Every structure is written in structure tokens, then in C-alpha cells.
Amino acid sequence: MNVPWVAFMVPAPHDFAVWFQQDLIQQLYTNAQTHDDHPEDQVIDIIPGLPPIPFKDFHYQVFQRNPSSPVVQLISSMVRKLPQASAVVLNSYEELNPSLLTNYLKSKVQNLLYMPLALSMTASGTDATGCLPWLDQQKPTSVAYISFGTMETPGPDEFEALAEALEESGVPFLWSLKDKFKEYLPDGFIERIGMRGKVVPWVSQRQVLEHPSIGVHVTHSGYNSVLESILCGVPMICRSLWADNHLNAKMVEEVWGIGVRVENRVNTKSGMIKCLDLIFQQDKGKKIRQAAAALKQVSERAAGPDGVAAKHFETLLQIISEK
To answer: What CATH number does domain 131-301 carry, 3.40.50.1000, 3.40.50.720, 3.40.50.2000, 3.30.70.260?
Structure first.
């Protein structure tokens, strides 16, 4: 049976490109270990279209040579097999990515297609925690929305530091925080902030990000969260946690220019106050907000009938029908 195999890739294009360089990254890191006490801080420039990247911004299992690692084995297997696929579909818009990066990926597979299937859906879900009416009462682009995803979370000290920063900054905020983590908040925090802030166990993130009162997304930099922020034109403060988070945060700050990273990947009171002040008060924050709005427009055009995604969908139909 001559059935086409089409691979739909969940990782970001920049993270996907790293896979094809895994062996070289491991080799370079091994060499760095012999000359440097802190090799993870060394910077390498091997991904076309991306700025130089320190080893610590890669997933640690990518740069540390460990052939028995399930992650390393899985990536190696996919890198060998993906060139055999009739097409590889990426969950992104081509227009959001550097052309050099796209050209590099095109050289690795037969048909590289950009079709953000998971992002085509409109916001949905119920507002069980009453976030939207509260947001309606806030000024445009004034609210910090905080969410660190579901896979990993910062430590207790970071929750406390973030709460103290929010309290001192005076910025209105909506914090999606599971009930089990509330014990890490300072005593009396929720009572003191009153109606200026809202702490809830869950939100419909796309609905929240689309609300005009949202001024920044304090995020773990998971790929889906970053993409949703881009589609909604919301700047980001990135506290990356693990896996692809660090590279996503680097893209946010250095490639797209639509956010900032917290210092040393740790939420501190002073560091978060500095980030909030930058986004909401400084000229650089205005430029970041303008860049986020411009990238939103790029994504809207990319999603339209004249965007690359529509053309790639036609290509996919042709690949399937010809087999």
C-alpha cells in the first residue's frame, strides 16, 4: 500500500531545528567541558536564522551526551525517519519565523508545511471563576495575567517573591494558581490586595488573553502559551522552567522583541518589579507592546486566504490525493 505518511510536529520550528543538530550540540558541549568550569554558559551559533544560543537554553538532555536517555533516543529516531515522510506539518505560521530557519528545515524534509491546526480554534470555555466580569472593570492593557502552565512550577520562594512584587508594584493582576499552591503566598496577601487582584485556580487562557484589559502575560514560556500570546498581541514576561521553555523565551525577547526574560530565570521581588515597570512604564515597554501588536497583525494575515498556511493546506491535499 502506497499510503502517504504525514507527520504533524508539536514542537516550535526553532526547537525542531535543534533536533537535527543534536549530535553536534552534544559534541560541542563535551569539548566545552574540557576547557570551562561552567560549559553551560558557553554560546554556540549553529542554528540558521537564530541568534547565538548558550547551552543552558537547550533542553539539558539535548546537550548532555547520554545515549541511553529516552529523550535522546526518541529525537535521534525521529531525525532519521522524518526525511522519509511525505510531508512534515509544523504547528506555526511561516510568516512568524526567520526565513533562514525555514530554509534550513526545508533542506531536512521532503515537504515542510506550516499549518497551525491547534491555533485555528477560537476561544472557548466557560468562565466559572468570574474572570471576565472582573477584567471588564479594568483599564485597557493594565492587567498582568500570570500562569505557569501545568507541567512544572516555580518553587515556593518564587511564588512568595512574585506575590510581593505584585503587591508593591500596584499593578492589577489575574493569577491562575492552583489551590494547593496558595499556601506559598505571603500571609494576608489576598486580603491586602483586595479587588486589585484576582487569584483563581483555572482560567480559559485564550479568552483571558483576548481581553483588552490584559497588558502582559507572565508565563513559563510553553510553546502554546507563547503562540496564544502572539495571536492576541500580548507582551510577555518569561520565567522559563524547563524543556523548550528557555529557547521559546529567547525567541520572545531577542528574535520577536515582544517580551523580556526574568533575571537568571528566577522570580525575585526586585526582578519582577523591574520587569513590570519596564512593560507598563518605560519607553522600551511601549516598543515591546508595539512589536506585539505588529506580530499579531502578521499572524492575522498569515491565517487569511492569502497566507502561506492556506497554500500549504492545498499542497497537503494534493500530496494525499496523489498517492
So the answer is: 3.40.50.2000
Q: For residue range 93-137, list pLDDT tens digits in order.
A: 999 999 999 999 999 999 999 998 756 555 566 788 889 999 999
pTM across the whole model: 0.95
| Residue whose C-alpha is closest to residue 114's, from 9, 206, 20 | 9
CB atoms within 10 A of CB 99: 11
Q: Kindly report, residue by residue over 187-200, the tens digit of the pLDDT.
A: 999 999 999 999 99
Q: Which grid cell is 90?
A: 509544523
How do the residues of the chain divide into helix, strand and coil, expressed in percent and rounded to 5? 55, 10, 35
CATH number of 6-119+303-322: 3.40.50.2000
| Cα four-point dihedral sign 145, 150, 152, 156 | positive
pLDDT digits over 12-67, tens only? 999 999 999 999 999 999 999 998 899 999 999 999 999 999 999 998 878 777 77
Interaxial angle between packed helices 13-20 and 22-33, expressed in degrees from 0 to 180 and rounded to the nearest 10: 70
Q: Is-same-fold flag (6-119+303-322; 131-301)?
A: yes
Which letter, b or e, does each residue of 271-295 get, where b requires 16 or more Cβ atoms within 10 Å of its Cβ?
bbbbbbebbbeeeebeebbebbeeb
How high does pLDDT run on average in the chain?
Answer: 94
